[in-house]
Amino acid sequence: MDALRLERRLIIIAVAFVLTLFGLAALAVNMFHVGLPTCLTDIKPFQKGELITHSPTHYELHYVARMWEFDPEEVTVPVGSTIDIYVSTRDVTHGLILLGTDLNLMAVPGVVNYARVKFDKPGVHQLLCHEYCGTGHDRMAANLRVVDLATFQAKQSAPVQTQPSDPTYKLLEAKDCLTCHSIDGSEGIGPTLKGIYGRKTKLTNGSTVVADDVYLRESIVNPSAKITDGFDDLMPKPELTEQEVNAIVEYLENLK
Amino acid sequence: MIELPNERKIDIEPGLKRMILIELIFPVVLLVLGIYHGMMQVLYRSGMIHTRKVLGLEYYQGLTLHGVINAIVFTTFFAVAFGYAVIRFYLERPLNMKVAWLSFALMIVGTLLAAAAILSGTSSVLYTFYPPLRAHPAFYVGLTLVVVGSWIAFFNWMPAYSGWKREHRGEKVPLAVVGIFAAFVVWLIATIPVAIEIIFLLLPWSLGWVATVNVPLARMLFWFFGHPLVYFWLLPSYVMYYTMLPKLAGGKLFSDFAGRLTFMWLVLYSAPVGIHHQFTEPGISSTWKFVHAFFTMLVAVPSFATAFALAASMEHGARQNGGRGLLGWWKKLPYIDKERWLFGYFFCGLVIFIFGGVTGIINASYNLDVVVHNTSWLPAHFHQTVAGPIFLSYIAMSLFLVVKLTGKEIKFPGWNVWVPYIWTLGIMIFSTGLFIGGAGGEPRRTNMGLTYTNPESPLYHADWQAAKMLGSIGGTIMTLAALIFFVVFFATLFARSARAGALELIVSEPFHDENVRAVQSFTPWLAGAVLLLVIAYAPPIAQTLRSNFPGAPPYTPDSPLPISAAKP
């Protein structure tokens, strides 16, 4: 056969092949409603995450992604319900992948993303950040629990576990301290604050100090002065009044 | 190395020779660092290392180096050096050395600036540098200088091209020259939007002259660049495949037309496809995502044409070597041949590319992307393309040109022939691990050793461990292949010259030498490309401009507070 005719035929076959694949993707959009997020321009990026109940089978879930956590971190929804998920970011670009589902959304500054999911089976789905968002990216995760309706209702009527209401705790939260330092002993970007008072702390320069009032005060006012071994010099100087520093030091002394 | 028959060699100006050599050797030296962190990454991710940094190099800092060196610096330097070699060899016209050295200096200075910015620890933003994570201004300036330097090299070839055409009216421009020009036309199309992103959005913002940046616009401009970029990498490999592989196989290029059509097709379709990297993003309507998905499918067609033309060319060669039968001829190719060692590098790249191509079609299939977007599936696909045909052909041609230009003999030729096969074994194991992990939701670009593969972390995923082990075994084998290559390359470089160096390329003759007018000129294809770009990008860019998204202040990767509020 003439080479050109052969080649023309092969190119037609190749074009037909890729367009068939494209057609299948389009078919999936129509038949199974597997679409992609579209442009939402009428929603202002929100700053607070929450679960809003529209009806017992319809919920609206607002996720705020921030360095390096999701708000809310724990969400429980009943099985069989439809969830409209809206995603916003408070700082840099993040990504959300809900393991075991097809939920895969980027959180881009300035824009709100949206997808609808429906859970047919109970279980725990882990939500991970899948876009590099800085030093703490590798531990940015949350949970979404799907439970049966009875468990869900029992949980809703039970008293909600309240956050500590201490004003100094609220101050730590407002100043973003708790983004890096936990108060429950869990690992973070910075050392945990639990039991920090009186703790023997090894420093990057090789020496060891006991965390007393003076050390705590210095570490708050001038974070770069002494760095705990195993951590990096990352903490910015916080804007705090003298009273606030005193209150935090006193709070830490009692945080056993 | 024994000479292949009909090899043509030309003596070139010593200045040009020196420049081509430095442009080949300099990025291979940097590659040692880039590949070192490639190795480190599989160790971190598989959970063999549970720390943030090793030997002073932090994970994400090393990842930035790995991407910038391997994917931007090495590729751009090689494309420019190889472009000089091809243009000088085929067009046989002098090039303006002052302009050439200017381009050279900009690229070297740019690379050093970007490297300094990354090594200082202030630019761990990965090689996609998505705002509002902010790098040191030197990072942006450095990358811009590398790009501008490569533009100047391309502009330097244009008079040679038009001069040759004037003297050879009615003749076809040599296929290799068409391929190199296609590569740099695609590069020009790709780098204009990213230059706009850097110069007008990121640089003033990183210097503090403007407070905020429009992130959706910056991302769209980045991916306007990001996809044609891969064809800029691929086209020099295609030049080697079309013009050298057939002869190495022992035969002729099955179809000269297939090569020209492939090159022109990539000029036409490589750019209006970038939104397929942004399928899961807000701020872009699903209509335009669908349009880009359609064009992305069409950009796969020239790779089908190439697969056919190259398989036919290899069959022709194998039959010349005495191969018989419907499939039996596959046995008669120079897979392990110290004289035709380039064949193994090219052939292995093509084998890897079959898998890279198939997974590329999966990624581009619109809604299928939600399963794999930003998981480790993506780097698996990416390595099967960039670290497959592109990497193997680039390191092979770097070694080949260094040997020919310096007149040296390859050291350890018996080791050299095995490099591509070891690499292929490694990359297939590596990407199998990443494909399995990615399909299960394992995130890419994540120091998983701290959490997901750390048994002491509450986030530990025991179910990901097996795939991670595959990834690290494959990555180790790849590093081993790279190490052997480095030993061969540098031992050859420091060996004594055996003869006078000359510029030499392998030239395959066409088997079918059709003269189809439609593929002889860039003009109609370039006009078509501009038209498609306007159709594909004007509406979504207008959308990002009209939507009045709140701008974002800059952040460093270390702090959840914007830079103005953080430590000075």
Characterization of this structure:
The complex is a heterodimer of chains A (256) and B (568). Chain A starts with a helix and ends with a helix. Chain A is built from 5 helices and 12 strands. In chain A, 30% of the residues are buried. Chain A is elongated, with a radius of gyration of 25 Å. In chain A, strands 1, 2, 3, 5 and 8 form a 5-stranded mixed beta sheet that branches. In chain A, strands 4-10-9-6-7 form a 5-stranded mixed beta sheet, with helices on one face. In chain B, a hairpin with a 2-residue loop joins β2 and β3. Chain B is an all-alpha fold. Chain B is globular. In chain B, the strands form 3 sheets. Chain B has a two-stranded antiparallel sheet with strand order 1-5. Among the domains of chain B are: 194 residues, no CATH class; 139 residues, no CATH class. At the A-B interface, α1, β7 and β9 of A face α6, α8, α9, α10 and α12 of B.
Short descriptors:
heterodimer; A: Immunoglobulin-like; Cytochrome Bc1 Complex, Chain D, domain 2; 3 domains; five-stranded mixed β-sheet; 5 helices; B: 568 residues; mainly alpha; two-stranded antiparallel sheet; 17 helices; 65% helix
Helix content of chain B: 55-70%
Principal-axis shape of chain B: globular
Computed Rg of chain B: 23 Å
Which quaternary structure do these chains form? heterodimer
**Quick one: which chains have the greatest interface?**
A-B, 74 and 82 residues
What fraction strand of chain A? 25-35%
Whole-number total of structural domains of chain A: 3
- Largest sheet report of chain A: 5 strands, mixed
- Uncertain regions spanning at least 5 consecutive residues of chain B: none
Helix content of chain A: 25-40%
Number of strands of chain B: 6
Biggest sheet descriptor of chain B: 2 strands, antiparallel
Helix count of chain B, per DSSP? 17
Stated plainly, the CATH topology of the largest domain in chain A is called Immunoglobulin-like
Write out the strand line-up for the largest beta sheet of chain B, numbering strands in chain order: 1-5
Identify the CATH homologous superfamily of the largest domain in chain A.
Answer: Cupredoxins -  blue copper proteins
Radius of gyration of chain A: 25 Å
